[in-house]
Amino acid sequence: MTSPNPLRPTKFAEHKLVSAILDGTYPPGAKLPAERALAVEMGVTRPTLRETLKQMETEGWITIAHGKPTVVNDYLKTGGLGILSTLTRHKGYVPNSFVSHFLELRSALLPRMALFAVWEERDTLLAYLKEADGLEENSTSYVDYDWGLQLKLADLSGNPFYRMILNDFSEMYLNMGVVYFEQEAHRKESFAYYKVLRDAVEASDCKGASEVVRQTMENASALWKSMVGT
Fold this sequence. Notes:
The protein has 230 residues and is mostly helical. The protein has helices spanning 9-22, 35-42, 46-59, 75-78, 81-88, 96-130, 139-156, 160-167, 170-180, 184-202, 206-228, and strands at residues 62-63, 71-72. The model has no long low-confidence stretch (mean pLDDT 89).
């Protein structure tokens, strides 16, 4: 068996430092050690550390001030989509509430994507929904198809920002989706959803499709919260 490729030095340093921030070693408001000491702690060279710190400042993790200690930000308030992408790569530190927040965001965005997807690319969306008839009765098959449907709605909506937002949650959704679709009841509910959505798309009912998606996303969010107790 081949071992996974090692991280590039900057990514290695990022992983180490972000992990230290997330596990509370350097909480929001904390001052990082001087560059030389931090480079030794991270196990990288000072040039590598500088590059890493600049990238993390761009994402909103830290604030660098010349001649002063680097300070850890309240990153959920100062960060952008880059932080979301980085957080989803640190699964061990992602709380259940983070997943719930994503599901709430999805409930707000996906219905609008569906409305425009039906309006702009009805036939392409309909072709994808027909593929649900061939779904295998297992968690992996459903999570792959379900995430593919969400990405399809984003792509067909005509707004590239929707796809970029979803991309940052891809790894997290695929992991949580496997757990969600382990339950037969959830697979049956989703299969019924694909059929109802397909009917709305066949009728070119943009608003109807949007409402089907809204109700389904809100129900899925409630089911997930009941599963994890948030």
